[in-house]
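Lecture notes, unit on protein representations.

Consider one protein chain, 404 amino acids long.
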Amino acid sequence: MYNPSLSGSAGNSAANNRLFIYEVIGLSNRQSADSVNGNVRRSGSEFITVPYQRMNQEMRRIANLGGKILSIRPFGANSQPMAIESSESVPQAQPQATAAPAATPKKHADVPVNIYRPNAPFVGKCVSNDGLLAEGGIGMVQHVKFDISTGDLRYFEGQSIGIIPPGKDNKGKNHKIRLYSIASTRHGDNVDDKTVSLCVRKLEYKDEKTGQEVEGVCSTFLCNIKPGDDVQITGPTGKEMLLPEDPDANVIMMATGTGIAPFRAYLWRMFKDNERHANPDYRFNGLAWLVFGVATTPNILYKGELEEIQERYPDNFKLTYAVSREQKNAEGGKMYIQDRIAENADQLWSLIQQEKTHVYICGLKGMETGIDAALTTAAIKSDVKWAEYRSQMKRAGRWHVETY
């Protein structure tokens, strides 16, 4: 999904070539651990030397072997260990080998942001470019996958990357960056940490002044890109749409069109077999409810994936479509996403009042007014002012919006 509301400058980490020492206990198969020093404590601790760029990969490998990381410290005889919160966090490199222990990280402090800057983008290659619309679908929407294995681009579900289209604008300058929500999990579609995927609609509109048909520069480039073609990538950016780490959370998702992109990443992380195997410490136990608005049935993006998850996990995933040109609302008009919210407002309001519930809205900005109206009606039955309650949720980090 293209998201013009996000922006960010980026910088490649200066720590890419640094080494770190992991203190680990409980490895079920010590011989399978590469780069393990011979130094073993009486307590059973083992020490593994890890390059910065392999920290994420090594954490997952240790977890898969049943190990637990007690500390991480920069390579150096006098270095102090850094506190570890979870086996999948990415500790920030300390500026000096003798740095003091890291303080308790702030919320989202371990999220990678702006690894690549616009003036030094990562150059990846297109792996595949597949159409997402069924026969009869309106427009052009593609699932585009890029190889990022040669760089240090890391990201979490809910983040975005920037794309710099090739060529110059009409003023002779490089084209501006366009930001797109990532449609894959942090491990990529192949679950090998080597790819990133986008969901892209080709922008087409009529110029009001000239009456000519205009195609979006970046979206046209991405929709027509071929396997093997280069692409300049910046980022990642954004912390607004991050998925809660709590596996017992309820996650309500409201999307229109390519706004499905971050939610596809969420759902893969929650339910896909290969993802569940790659994330042994994360087992989603809550309720995920997706309300998805599209124009026609052929425009339901990732339809097969969504309905497979619904069939396999009926107790944990609820799927509701709003197909505007085919379905009617209660008044006989077109069925938009806000109409589905109104139909289910009481049930949604009951969920929203639970402290473990997070709400995400992604897609066209126009749906926000209708969603607020529906939830205002439901909240009033509990003598609650929806606008005030929504503000409280925002402050608590439970209300997440990315619209355009």
